[in-house]
Structure to design on (224 residues):
């Protein structure tokens, strides 16, 4: 089974800035390229952090209300310092949370979720920036056609990996939801089939209606 990797989904031409890039230049780059964040890299193109629209908005949020109706925000010391920064090194969220090109979608998605970030700079073996991958990039695996998902389940999961004749099961896919119906040789095969089908790129859910011809010896012994 082959899964799409970060290197296939990432944007390789990355708009980036240096630590001394000014506030207005960063804002201009975001608007010009219609992006929401830029990596900050050192002289060897190693990511130090990211500056996002949210980081820039700290400057505006920290300002006094011109109408005098709102109280001054009570920002933590770190946020207060960033709200006054004028260059990337002070504005950025750091350190940069990075991915590798050979990672699977699952690996990248788990890191994004765990670190609560929306995008990951992608670095090579030397830690140099080679791309950037966003949440929307990872979601592209769900754009796969149902027919392609069905064919992968039949050819890869059932026939090649499990050695099951795909014609013995009814495999249906609709909007990424997989339904399996039929009879397996052993009861223990059902959870394996379901797990492997769930891991196919683009699958949203798997429903199994699978019977079996025999039960494992341990189960028969327990029943006796």
């Amino acid at each position: 089974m082959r899964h799409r990797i970060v290197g296939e989904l990432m944007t390789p031409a990355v708009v980036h800035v240096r630590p001394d890039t000014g506030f207005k230049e960063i804002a201009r780059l975001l608007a010009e390229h219609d992006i929401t964040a830029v990596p900050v890299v050192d002289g060897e193109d190693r990511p130090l952090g990211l500056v996002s629209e949210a980081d820039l908005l700290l400057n505006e949020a920290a300002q006094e209300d011109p109408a005098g109706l709102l109280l001054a925000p009570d920002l933590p010391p770190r946020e207060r310092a960033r709200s006054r920064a004028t260059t990337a090194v002070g504005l950025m969220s750091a350190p940069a949370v990075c991915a590798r090109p050979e990672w699977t979608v699952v690996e990248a998605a788990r890191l994004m979720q765990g670190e609560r970030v929306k995008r990951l700079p992608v670095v090579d073996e030397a830690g140099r920036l080679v791309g950037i991958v966003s949440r929307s990039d990872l979601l592209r695996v769900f754009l796969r056609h149902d027919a392609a998902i069905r064919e992968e389940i039949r050819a890869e999961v059932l026939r090649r990996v499990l050695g099951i004749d795909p014609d013995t099961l009814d495999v249906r896919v609709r909007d990424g939801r997989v339904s399996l119906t039929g009879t397996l040789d052993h009861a223990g095969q059902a959870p394996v089939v379901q797990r492997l089908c769930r891991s196919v790129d683009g699958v949203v859910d798997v429903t199994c209606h699978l019977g079996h011809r025999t039960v494992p010896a341990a189960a028969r012994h327990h029943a006796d």
Observations:
- Residues 144-223 form a domain with the Histidine-containing Protein; Chain: A; fold (CATH 3.30.1340.30).
